[in-house]
Amino acid sequence: DAGVIQSPRHEVTEMGQEVTLRCKPISGHNSLFWYRQTMMRGLELLIYFNNNVPIDDSGMPEDRFSAKMPNASFSTLKIQPSEPRDSAVYFCASGTNQETQYFGPGTRLLVL
Amino acid sequence: AQSVSQHNHHVILSEAASLELGCNYSYGGTVNLFWYVQYPGQHLQLLLKYFSGDPLVKGIKGFEAEFIKSKFSFNLRKPSVQWSDTAEYFCAVNGWPGRRALTFGSGTRLQVQP
Questions:
Q1: How many percent of chain A have pLDDT more than 90?
Q2: Nearest Cα to A86, choosing from A101, A105, A107, A103?
Q3: Average pLDDT, chain A
Q4: What's the whole-number mean pLDDT along residues B35-60?
Q5: Which of A48, A59, A103 sits opposite B44 (nearest CB)?
Q6: How confident is the model at residue B77 (pLDDT cuts 50, 70, 90)?
Q7: Which residues of B49-83 are buried (b: 16+ CB within 10 A; e: fewer)?
Q8: Tell me, what's the pLDDT at B71?
Q9: Does the CB of A98 have a partner CB in chain B at under 8 Å?
Q10: Closest chain A residue to B40, measured at CA
């Protein structure tokens, strides 16, 4: 099993640019989660999908953030426009109804 | 609001010392409990989990955790740490009504000195 796949692994961009993060969950998993990790706030949920439908987006910081899951094998997290305070590691995780979540390697984002 | 507390932010131990990391959560209903480990520069890996049954759970790499419902605790233990256990450890909880996503503690950074 390839595990959760995220791309890119590292992204450096300038303030105001659009950033798109991608995630491929583990095959057969029906839940997908986006988390953000920062020194100040630790690990926090941004949004999660169940069967491709967004269930809880209460953690999405503001309208600059959007997430989609067009099918069971792909999700994107978009930031437009990006700001320096968005700099963080963004993790995607997938799971099943048994609740265990498996994390991807993360995307380290730096917004200058 | 539901929350998870990890009381030890930074722990320094010598090799072969015993480890216990504290974790408490704030919800009185049924929850699922997890410990994840994050090695430097890497992603989170599942160490162990508790859903139901025997409150003493054994995980990978010699780690175990004990669920004590009356204390809302799920402490992580290892009898003898190794230098390779140097990492950050996160306690996480889900299962609160309508919330399948994980709520994480702030993490404990473990440094094992050779």
A1: 83
A2: A107
A3: 93
A4: 93
A5: A103
A6: very high
A7: bbeeeeeebebeeebbbbbeeeebbbbbebeebee
A8: 92
A9: yes
A10: A105
Q: Which residues of B touch A46 (CB under 8 A)?
A: none
- Going by their DSSP bridges, the two strands A53-56 and A42-50 should be labelled as antiparallel
CB contact under 8 A, A103 and B100: no
Indicate the SS3 state at residue B62. Answer: helix
Instruction: Single out the residue of B108, B90, B2, B85 nearest to residue B46, CA to CA.
Output: B90
Q: What are phi and psi of B74, to 5 degrees?
A: -150, 75
Average pLDDT of the residues in A43-49: 93
First to last CA, chain A: 36
Q: Tell which residue, B63, B14, B2, has the closest CA to residue B34.
A: B63
Mean pLDDT of A69-75: 96
Contacts of A42 in chain B (CB under 8 A): 104-107
Q: Using a CB-CB distance cutoff of 8 angstroms, which residues of chain B are in contact with residue A100? A: 34, 46, 49
Contact B9, B111 (CB under 8 A): no
Instruction: Give mean pLDDT, residues A48-56.
Output: 91
Which residue's structure tokens are 């993060």? Answer: A21
